[in-house]
Sequence to fold (126 residues):
Amino acid sequence: MPVGVGIVAIRVPAALGRVALRVLDEQQPPVAVGPVILNHLLKAVEFIVPASPALWPGSDIVRLDGRLDSTRTVRVPPLGCRGSGREWLRTPRAAAGKRPILTDPHHLAHALTTARSKFPAGSPIR
Fold:
């Protein structure tokens, strides 16, 4: 999947990403959650979001957009199965005739901050 032109991937440690995903799922009112990939090789979770100037809390968060590193694509697994060390935690989806649903970057930034607070002081996540 190409990144950098309107879409970026936010890569976080797997433990933080799983908790942040739970935080997003529990939001009231509910928020839309777009594609999320579990990268077993890097022990990371990758959220696909619209490009935005959102501030990402924590030095362990990587924005994959082709500007800060050479990454211009994010490898995605085939739908419905695990492939090349990756699996979908949330598959891409869209309403008929509409653009794919993506997670709002500000909701994700808030979920990551909330998730980080759930780890004990001194934890490598914190």
